[in-house]
Amino acid sequence: MRPPVTPVPRARRHTLHFLHHARGAAPVHLDAEVDATELLDHRAAAARPVSVVTHVVHAVGRVLARHPDANAAYGGGGLRPRLVRYPWVDVKLTLDRVVDDTRVVLSSVLTDADRASRSFLQARITRLATNDPELLPEFDGVRALRRLPHPVGRLAFAAANRTAHRHRHLGTVAVTSLGHRRVQRFFSHGGTAVTVGVGRITTRPVVRDGELAAAPVLPLSLTFDHRVLDGAEAADVLDDLVETLRRPPTPEPDDAAR
Question: Which are the contacts of 21, defined by CB distance < 8 A and separation ≥ 6?
């Protein structure tokens, strides 16, 4: 008996186009852990608590602004290699949604994340995660790709993500999370020079001032495109991100609009 063979669902075509586009990268993977005690204490005491992913997106925006060589993109192919360094930080966030009865990964770009407040970012993320993706204008491009024949869609995806315009669709840095499940570490290339992966917070033994203690630990991964930056700079970015998330979050005004 032969197993059934079916076409890849149209709802996942954009993922295939992205993977074809991203295959030229040279990904290298790093990982670290964050003592999330201060972060969770802040969430518990906040009048307007935000998710761990929002804290990470907020921190990534600030950190990438401090590391402009990592907030960049590679372009030009093999004949005329060049880099684009962005003066702003746009975070591409992946979302697990259901479209046409198919579980898919969608992504949306949170612009100017280096200047946005946590509450502003949370409002945007909640909107993307809870509303019908078929009705959100942020996913117009995905719906357009779904309607195109596969070869035409691949060309359209490549044209839309040329170096000069890539940040509009892929961001300047990517954040992806599997922390809703018992995932410690995973490594993903989001089509950007730096991709940050967020795992599940678990209680782990840590050493504080020479003493063993139990603490909530947030695992982070960082995948970087070796064409854009080298390992030492990528390690600096990850270390800065760990330190930023480890410290008590900075207060925000009650009327923060952005």
Answer: 157, 158, 161, 191
Q: Phi then psi for 38, rounded to 5 degrees?
A: -65, -40
Q: Which residues pair with 35 in a beta bridge?
A: 217
Q: What share of the chain is helix, strand, coil (3-state, %, to 5)?
A: 35, 25, 35
**DSSP bridge pairs for 220:** 32, 198
Nearest Cα neighbor of 187 from 29, 74, 47 is: 29
How far is the C-alpha of 14 from the C-alpha of 221, rounded, in Å?
24
User: Residue 111 has what DSSP assignment?
Assistant: T
| pTM for this predicted structure | 0.93
Amino acid identity of residue 204, one-letter, is: R
Neighbouring-strand partners of residue 174: 92, 195
**Per-residue model confidence as pLDDT tens digits over 168-186:** 999 999 999 998 889 988 9
Left (φ > 0), alpha (ψ -120 to 50) or beta: where does 243 sit? alpha
